[in-house]
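User: Hey, quick favor. My workstation is busy. Could you predict this chain's structure for me?
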Amino acid sequence: MRDLDTTKAILLRRTKLSDTSFIITWFTEGHGKLKTVAKGARRPKSTFAGKLDLFFDAEIAFARSKKSELHTLREVVLLNPREGLRKEYQRVQLASYFVELLELVTESDHAAPELHDLLKRALDYLDANSANKKAMLHFEAELTRLLGIHDEKETKPAHAIGRLHGRLPSSRQELMKNLK
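Assistant: No problem, here it is.
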């Protein structure tokens, strides 16, 4: 059996792969953005049952693929399900925006522990507090600062991200309109 890598991770995306399996996209502390196959995870008696939902904080063990960037998920230890985050639709919406931004500005398998920490803090905030515009703008400002792309002359960090990556997530406009 191959050696397993372990790391703390936040579940970003869950995509159906087959009748029994998912592709799980994680943002990890030690490896950055990472995709794993959770074989058998859609079966009722799977060892992954109840451990693979959006924004969950977990410790994962995975076997690296030598042929692709799709690794095999072996174990998940749930650390924080962030149940409070699901209490309001706007909390989920803002958490999804944070994930979209991170996916836009990061590459696979590139460690960025400071970005993992930023996302963890943002999701923990939404777990305990209602979504608000101040939280959104703070996340954008911290993200641009950590990426080293904030221009002092630029008044809006989101514009720096949009300029560098050619776009911002489409959900931003609705969030700006609806959040207080």
